[in-house]
Design a protein that fits this description.
About 65% of the residues lie in helices and about 5% in strands.
């Protein structure tokens, strides 16, 4: 496989400048000679040669000595500037493309430093990188923390909403054929039950009171009552949710319910009035005060 290679050649690009420098040097040497008086040897030149020189070139006017010295100094200064000129070095770089052959030896690679020195270089480069990018890393970390916080808050809100929906969906509507939905009950359960009791409908009044108690336990006290929970199980489940007064009232209501419905025992009007008038003060008021304390 071949590849292109760039080579630099140095050529006679400054030949003209060298010739100019040589001419200037010769002129420098010639100026002092012309300023000196002619010697006796020059006087012995044959007349014929002098005549030919006169025919070829017109005689030059003699140059005064001060002017010749100034001219010589100017020429020397010009030659000195030409000597220090980098373009007068006589070298010229040219670039050309050549194909590199696979057979050509590869250039020597720089020796790799020892492992310990390389490790130190790596640590230094890492520190420099962290120093250069510390602000970017800080901003990125803050952005990540804000994003995590927002996602966590969103999941928390969704979890609470899901729990509320789940509790609403899983709340039972009937317990052993008794409708315990809040919308199926009157607003004042105690007054409605006492009206039934005075009308001689004691089982209906007890049924209304028991249904209302179950509904309050499920929807206000969050007691985990299922559709198959018995009376005794309701009391056991309510022990950890109700205070002593509400639990005492619920126990009295359940016992009266069992005695009349299952045992066919008659109950006095005083018992009925106590159960009907105590419903609102024992269950509704207790649930409201407990929610206020929790808030």
């Amino acid at each position: 496989m071949h590849s292109l290679r760039v080579e630099a050649h140095r050529g006679p690009a400054a030949a003209t400048r060298r010739r100019l420098a040589a001419t200037a040097l010769l002129a420098t040497l010639a100026v002092p000679a012309s300023a000196q008086p002619p010697s006796t040897d020059d006087a012995a030149v044959p007349a014929a040669a002098a005549s030919d020189a006169v025919d070829q070139a017109a005689p030059a006017a003699p140059v005064p000595a001060p002017a010749a010295s100034a001219q010589a100094a100017a020429i020397v200064d010009a030659v000195a500037r030409l000597q220090v000129d980098p373009l007068m070095s006589g070298r010229h770089k040219t670039r050309a493309l050549h194909w590199n052959s696979d057979d050509e030896p590869e250039k020597k690679k720089e020796p790799t430093p020892p492992s310990d020195i390389a490790w130190l270089h790596w640590v230094r480069d890492l520190v420099d990188f962290i120093n250069d990018t510390s602000r970017i890393l800080l901003y990125g970390l803050i952005a990540v923390l804000v994003a995590v916080l927002l996602v966590s808050l969103r999941h928390l809100v969704q979890l609470r909403s899901f729990r509320r929906r789940t509790s609403a969906v899983t709340a039972v509507s009937h317990v052993r054929d008794l409708d315990v939905r809040p919308e199926s009950l009157p607003d004042d359960i105690g007054a409605a039950a006492w009206a039934l009791w005075r009308a001689g409908q004691v089982p209906a009044a007890l049924s209304l009171l028991y249904r209302g108690a179950l509904s309050r336990l499920i929807h206000r006290w969050a007691v985990p009552i299922s559709s198959a929970t018995t009376e005794g199980e309701c009391l056991e489940l309510a022990r950890s949710h109700l205070d002593a007064t509400a639990l005492r009232y619920l126990t009295q209501l359940v016992r009266a319910w069992e005695a009349n419905i299952y045992g066919s025992r008659a109950l006095s009007d005083a018992m009925g009035e106590t159960l009907c008038s105590g419903f609102a003060t024992r269950l509704d008021a207790a649930a409201t005060s407990t929610k206020g304390a929790a808030a």
